[in-house]
Every structure is written in structure tokens, then in C-alpha cells.
Prior knowledge:
mainly alpha; about 70 residues
Amino acid sequence: MVQNSxxxxxxxxxxxxxxxxxxxxxxxxxxxxxxxxxLYMRGDISFGKASEIARISYRELELIRTKARIPVHI
Length: 74
């Protein structure tokens, strides 16, 4: 489950984002998707692996990532 109390655990800096991450939207998602996004935001897994963990297509997770305003990790 996504927790946003300690943002230092993520590879991005929240204050550098153009728009803040939509944590409320992320918390409304099924737990498997939340877990996958959490691991991705920590930099522990690739986006492709996140889509496997979430059990949804890469494209579907990309739409969710965009709606949640999670930056792309390159």
C-alpha cells in the first residue's frame, strides 16, 4: 500500500515536480497496482516489471501513471 509520509524514499523530489502527485487517486487503486507503483517510485523495479506485478498491461499502467502524475524514471 502506498504511503506518502516519507517522500525521501522516492527517486524524485516532490518539490521539483510541476504538479504534485495525486496520492488520493493512487490510494483509490487496487492494492496490486499501488504496490507496483510504490516499488517503481522507489526505483526498485522497472516500469515493465511494475506492470507485471500490477497484472495489467504496460499501456494501462502508463495511463494510470500519467493520471497520478508520477514522473518517468529514466
